[in-house]
Amino acid sequence: MLLVTLDPKTVKEENIMLMKKIAVFPGSFDPFTVGHESIVRRAIPLFDEVIIAIGYNSQKQGFFPLETRLEWIKKTFTDVPSVRFEVYEGLTIDFCTKNDAHFLLRGLRTSSDFEYERAIAQMNKMMNEHIETVFMLTMPEHSSLSSSIVREIVRYKSDASKFVPHAFAADMKRFVDDK
Ligand code: ADP
Prior knowledge:
Helix content: 40-55%
CATH architecture: 3-Layer(aba) Sandwich
Bound molecules: adenosine-5'-diphosphate
CATH topology: Rossmann fold
CATH superfamily: HUPs
Radius of gyration: 17 Å
Number of helices: 7
Largest sheet: 6 strands, mixed
Number of domains: 1
Number of strands: 6
């Protein structure tokens, strides 16, 4: 399901037709899961370009190293030329502006996701009216999946392969075994 709110006062119809439709899919992706992969693959036909943007916080170290997370995401989409990858620090809407992206893509699993995301999307809209947040409902089979559950599984050296994209599941298993 797709929920788009275009404001006719700020985005004129002829401009929408002309502009390249670039969406940013931001997250910590620590690690990227099959739920994230599904959202991106379903968004590919809707946009000219999807940028998967790993938010980096210099104060907070992730579980998996940033470079590893990026490498694994790249491996997942080697078959899709319209998907790009970036690491950014700072506000997501500033990153969107720098990259000429007018769409922010977010996945919704539950009503609590919705409440959390609604506040952020409405604040973003007040800060930059030209950026539209597009919400995509997760597939039912992914609605209980989160990166934090995957981290919990691997922390106890159990097998989380089925919850991450096939493209790097073996790499992740090796990474965890060597830890
Ligand atoms: P953040 O730190 O921004 O919450 P995440 O990496 O956890 O980053 O998630 C990035 C985006 O992916 C968010 O929009 C989140 O709602 C969505 N997402 C997370 N897990 C899933 C899932 N299992 N299925 C679909 N979307 C998901």
